[in-house]
Design a protein that fits this description.
Layout lengths: L1 E2 H7 L5 H9 L3 E3 L2 E2 L6 E2 L5 H4 E3 L2 E2 L7 E6 L30 E2 L7 E8 L2 H8 L7 E7 L7 H6 L16 E6 L2 E6 L6 H8 L4 E9 L2 E2 L9 E3 L2 H4 L6
Parallel strand pairs: 9-13
Antiparallel strand pairs: 1-4, 2-3, 2-5, 5-6, 7-9, 7-15, 8-9, 10-12, 10-13, 11-12, 13-14
Helix pairs in contact: 1-2
Length: 240
């Protein structure tokens, strides 16, 4: 159970005072009935958007929330970096939800593709945990043709990145054409894919993440678009 005004404030609909005014104006409806008591305690679960409206529009889903987004080029996954942020692509009120939304890992500014955003700390840490080795697949275009040795080198589990003391875990390379390949890794080291190709004398021109575990970037999501993932679908990231 949650107090109505606190719930709506946590969902980003305004300050407690603003939310109380919204409720007093009769703009909140639950199960067909107008709510006027800001202190009313209501049951909160995944069905809430089907039962409650704010100004005639379904209320946003309560926590835990998982979003899948097609990250476009040119935006950052950090709250602190300069420039356009991935959170700027979300509704304003989603940016001030409590608990707040965070990306599950990061894609750098020049990488596009599948990114998950959540307010579920447990889910986030399970995905990025080094112990789980959740595979991630990237489509890469390269500056120079592949020479045919890269797949064996990446799969060996002995490749050392510059400045590191621990070899990479084995990774799978699938060649698309002479300058294009898919690379599946089970770690998340800094700029790992770019550094792997640099280690074999090549340079990544474009990088696009297609898959995390069993979850594939939906084909109907254009860059910058996102949708809410039901719990069962979000959990497919743990399917090998």
């Amino acid at each position: 159970m949650a107090r109505l005004d606190r719930l709506l404030a946590n969902l980003g609909y305004g300050s407690r005072k603003e939310v109380q005014a919204l409720i007093a104006a009769g703009k909140v409806v639950l199960d067909g009935k107008v709510l006027k008591d800001a202190g009313a305690r209501i049951a909160v679960d995944a069905t809430l958007p089907e039962r409650m409206t704010i100004r005639g529009v379904a209320v946003d889903p309560p926590a835990p929330l998982v979003l899948v987004m097609h990250k476009p080029l040119g935006v950052t996954c950090s709250h602190k970096e300069d420039g356009q942020k991935i959170y700027d692509l979300l509704p304003r009120r989603w940016q001030i939800r409590d608990p707040g939304l965070s990306t599950v890992g990061r894609l750098d500014k020049e990488t596009s593709g599948l990114i998950l955003i959540t307010d579920d700390g447990d889910f986030l840490h399970r995905v990025i945990s080094p112990k789980r080795h959740v595979p991630k697949t990237y489509l890469t275009s390269l500056d120079r043709p592949l020479d045919g040795t890269e797949g064996e080198i990446f799969a060996a589990g002995t490749l050392m990145l510059d400045g590191e003391e621990k070899p990479l875990l084995p990774a799978q390379l699938d060649v698309v054409d002479e300058k294009t390949a898919r690379l599946t890794i089970t770690e998340g080291r800094y700029h790992q894919v770019r550094r792997m190709f640099a280690a074999v004398g090549n340079h990544v021109v474009t990088l696009h993440r297609e898959r995390i575990g069993g979850l594939v970037l939906p084909a109907d999501l254009e860059p910058g678009q996102y949708r809410i993932l039901p719990t069962a679908e979000a959990e497919t990231v743990f399917d090998a």
